[in-house]
Amino acid sequence: MYVPSISPYDARLVFVASDMGGVYRSEDGGGSWRLIPYRQGLQFTQVSPPMAHFPGRIAWITQRNRVTVSDDGGKTWRTQPEGPWKNAPVTRLAAVPGSPDALLASTQDAVWRGEFSASGQPGAWRQVIDGGSSEIVALGGWLYTFVRNGEFLASPDGGRTWKTAAPGGQPSVGGRVASLAGGMDAKGMVLLASVEGVGIMRSTDGGQSWSRGKAGFENERHLAMAPGQTDVAYAAQTNGVAHKQLLRTTDGGRTWDKCFRMAMPWDKVSFGTNVERSWVQTQLGWGYYFTSNPLAVNPAGDGLLLLATQGDLYVSRDGGESWQQAMSAVQHAADGGAAPVLSSIGLEVTSAWAYLHDPHDPQRQYIAYTDIGFARSVNQGRSWTWSAKGSPWTNTFYDVVFDPATPGRMYAAASMRHDIPHAQELFPTNMKFAIHAMGGVVASDDHGATWRVPYDPKGGEALPSQTCTTVALDDRSPPAARVLYAGLYGEGDDDRAGVYKSVDGGRSWRTASRGLGTSGNLHVYRLRIHPATRELYCLITGISGKGTNFTIPGGLWKSPDGGDTWQNLTAGSPLAWWATNLAFDPVDARVIYVSAATAPGHWLEGGVYKTADGGRSWKQVLSDKGIMQAAGGDSFDHTMAVVVHPDNPRLIYAGTTLHGLLYSRDGGESWRHFAGFPFAAITGVTFDPADRKRMIVTTFGGGVWSGPILPEE
Q: Which of 106, 336, 674, 676 lies at 20 to 30 Å from 214 by C-alpha?
């Protein structure tokens, strides 16, 4: 999470952004959150400067260089036309409330000023400073900033004109200023500057002279201070693990102390800690560092703080004396153990591959995740517990199946390599990367509370340790000799990759890949047994070097004999380059759908493909252009999921990465946009077995959602 913000006009109104594409809004100071729908245009906000707040307006930078404005407290946003800085990223943003309101935007090369018109459009941009600036601080009717060469400037007229504030106009702090903050009260004015290679400097005379407050620069790239006082300020060491402290001064910058003291699970001593760790830290032990612009200080100076780390959000209501996690509602320990039971407060930045209902107990439901592995609920999804204990591979649970005859028994494809089949993970396997060599099948006999590897990892019939992306179970095999299939992700010359088969419930494995895959590509992603024909299907996704076109296709293969032989169903079809998922028609066994992403070198060949003859021929029923026509927009997309409703073979869903969810009511002949769904990147859809008119949608970065299967229902 990144760049939290607190409104200076209503401390209950707060925001936080995520690198997964979501921006979240709270009206109760972070007690609960709502996702701002992606169609509001809030893209790439993790690299944005903090929001600029006016009495009736908020301005922000999205897409790195576009001013985006809200006039209703952040509920809805409108992106403004391109500014005169063109494609240059905007690094600083400042509000100058007045009549009219003015906005200052800084790039690397210039500072621009624009006044809001009566219609709320910031227009008539004018360059007011040559060279990019630090933060722009407003105190006592003046504005202050440092420019690129270290010169300190001041403006008495809302940023229209600027003059040198330091004697002789010479650099006065000894280096490049990384961050600037200030405050003013009856005692006077304090300005604080974090200076690369120097430390934190302070001035009490409006920047005429500076003295050292903290010696040594340790990546304190973010200073924050309530402007109506001069004693308390904060310095965050950002974007690294070597320096990751939050420092606080209570004497105007003369001395500094650590105020965020979190003990990790491996720390032997926890004395002096003041952080209530989130479950991510207690269960996964991720550790932390501070992201860009990580701290929001309530401008009212009442001690309310919001702090973002790479995986957590924390709140302090006493100026940093103590911190509480602000990600989940914590209830009680699960099963009498140490694992907390959590319920969502709306701040969900997770990526999930599947939502599962236990066929033996409707109270039990599960989520297979990237990054955090697995979670289970014993009360139909009202609260959750992290539940990958015992698995040697806890990062990602790609695929999970249930034993139909044995309540509580589950099998999962678990790995440490995540995010397949997204582009960043389609490059070749490198066994020198430890995470590429870590994965396999795990089993549970207690409804997912604990997991074990069902085979001897060092035995001669073990499944090789490598990224495992999929598992399938033949539910007609004898319960005492359960047939399982597993897929290991790799290349054609990798003798570990491919499909493996077990005929004894996972205790021993043998290869089942003869004739499978294109030479050089065994990026096995999905194994599925057709419920009617009992044939085994294997989907192989794309392969690519970094920054290169796709040169080796994947596709869909079928085995009629349990993996002994394989037939390529998609040879020569465009869908083969970057296939991402498959779905069977519940009535007609000849009908299969495959989703595909647009692959570099094979432009606009993504979408959804359909066969009505068992794979002999394929028709593209949804194209990238079709997605744009249905959903609006002007870019290609990557389709990552296709799903058929189990009771209505004409009702098809397609999940994309940029345009959210689409659906077809005529077997793919025409498509509509599910405009009410709030998140852009979809990984899958499943249906509530107790109410098939409700669906659960898993996303890549926006958590898990439930709602009606059609917009009108």
A: 106
